[in-house]
Write a structure and sequence with these properties.
Layout (H helix, E strand, L loop, with lengths): L9 H4 L10 E4 L7 E6 L4 E7 L7 H21 L4 H4 L13 E3 L2 E7 L4 E2 L7 H18 L17 H14 L9 H9 L6 H7 L6 E3 L8 E4 L5 E4 L6 E3 L1 H12 L17 H15 L5 H5 L1 H21 L9 H6 L3 H18 L1 H14 L13
Antiparallel strand pairs: 1-2, 2-3, 3-5, 4-5, 6-8, 7-10, 8-9
Helix pairs in contact: 4-8, 4-9, 5-11, 8-11, 9-14, 11-13
């Protein structure tokens, strides 16, 4: 009998499955960090991923964080009478009972493929985006009773914006590939706002807001929606689960989903805040975190939208100046769009500017949603960034 050929080593597959039972294996998704494959059987499917240990230097800590968080969510989901298989990732152990297979110094993991759910790279349906807000809020509700101190910071200073700013300044001084002269306007934009970037980190340091479990990558395609009901199921891609502020997840989800343009759109006139999507996401989110979120967090919701746009824009700009060393370019990008990280930086900084310019309108929207949901706090609409 001819042995089947698969696009990843048989020795990896055999850590989890009998090869003769597999129908097909093929690359899956469009992630840029880990290598992901779908493994298909007659009655079920699984996801196998090679963990990128250049980005995640401690894969054991990554998997330990994931197991702690998913176990806690699973208990809450079951307690609420829901199907845990559809609402939370399930790790498949190796034949030796381990959460990872180590093959030729590479780290592999396997999870159940959630066939009941679907993810979107983009949606123009506000109902879907409201459910995305609910999913991000549900994540916080499920983990409100979890002790965040148990988690390891798998990427140090991930949302430490002052640290990112100091790295940005160092990169400018070094100017490794002589690109600073191309970015003077963007550098000025960032420097003009240096006094606005430490508000959340100070609130965390001073314990005025709680340090919680954060997902740290709440873009739409990491949010699972039920195929039939279009209701929120939960979050996937938990590699960056760490300690932080729920404001990071709220702001980052809006950065990705409430812009009127794609992240790499070079026409900055297209880059504005989608007010309807801002409203529906906020409504979905606040409906789930009611009773959990504290007043100081509510006061900084709109600010967090600005901060995440600013931080990511600054990171793209830093990397462009540094020679595209973190957000590495594919061969095709190098040929067609060699300045794509600068283009992304301009896009995200423009979105940060739009949040600044519409701060009072966005605050009004938050107040409207707070009133609809029965919150007692009212934000100061005269406040500005």
């Amino acid at each position: 009998m001819t042995r089947k050929k698969f696009p990843l080593p048989n020795v990896v597959l055999s850590e989890y499955f009998k090869l003769e039972n597999i129908i097909d294996v093929y690359p899956y998704g469009n992630g840029h960090i880990n290598h992901t494959y779908l493994v298909e059987f007659p009655t079920c499917k699984y996801i196998i991923q090679k963990i990128n240990d250049d980005v995640f230097a401690n894969p054991f800590a990554v998997m330990n964080n994931i197991e702690l968080v998913t176990s806690h969510i699973r208990k809450n989901v079951i307690y609420n009478g829901q199907d845990a298989r559809t609402c939370v990732l399930t790790t498949i152990l190796t034949k030796y009972g381990q959460t990872m297979a180590i093959v030729n110094d590479e780290y592999w993991r396997c999870t159940r493929f959630i066939e009941e759910g679907i993810t979107y790279d983009y949606t123009d349906n506000p109902e879907i985006f409201e459910e995305a807000g609910r999913a991000v809020g549900l994540f916080q509700r499920h983990l409100d009773s979890f002790q965040a101190r148990l988690l390891v910071d798998t990427i140090k200073n991930f949302h430490n914006t002052p640290y990112r700013y100091n790295t940005f300044l160092d990169t400018i001084k070094i100017d490794r590939v002589d690109r600073v002269k191309e970015c003077l306007k963007e550098i000025e934009f960032v420097n003009e706002r240096k006094n606005k970037i430490d508000i959340i980190s100070k609130l965390l340091h001073d314990r005025k807001i709680p340090r919680r479990v954060t997902h740290n990558d709440t873009k739409l395609n990491n949010i699972m929606i039920d195929k039939i009901t279009n209701k929120a199921l939960g979050l996937i891609d938990l590699d960056t689960v760490m300690k932080g502020s729920l404001l990071y997840d709220y702001g980052d989800a809006l950065r990705c989903g409430a812009s009127t343009a794609e992240e790499d759109d070079v026409n900055l006139d297209n880059v504005k805040v989608n007010m309807e999507f801002f409203k529906v996401f906020t409504r979905g989110y606040l409906s789930e975190v009611k009773g959990i979120i504290v007043d100081e967090e509510i006061k900084k919701l709109v600010y967090s939208f600005f901060l995440m746009c600013f931080e990511v824009g600054m990171r793209f700009l830093t990397d462009y100046i540094d020679g595209d060393r973190y957000f590495k370019l594919t061969h095709e990008q190098k040929q067609k769009r060699p300045n794509i990280n600068l283009e992304r930086a301009r896009n995200q900084l423009k979105l940060a500017y739009e949040v600044e310019n519409n701060y009072q309108q966005l605050t009004n929207i938050v107040n409207e949603v707070l009133g609809q949901l029965g919150y007692r706090i009212v934000l100061d609409i005269e406040e500005s960034l």
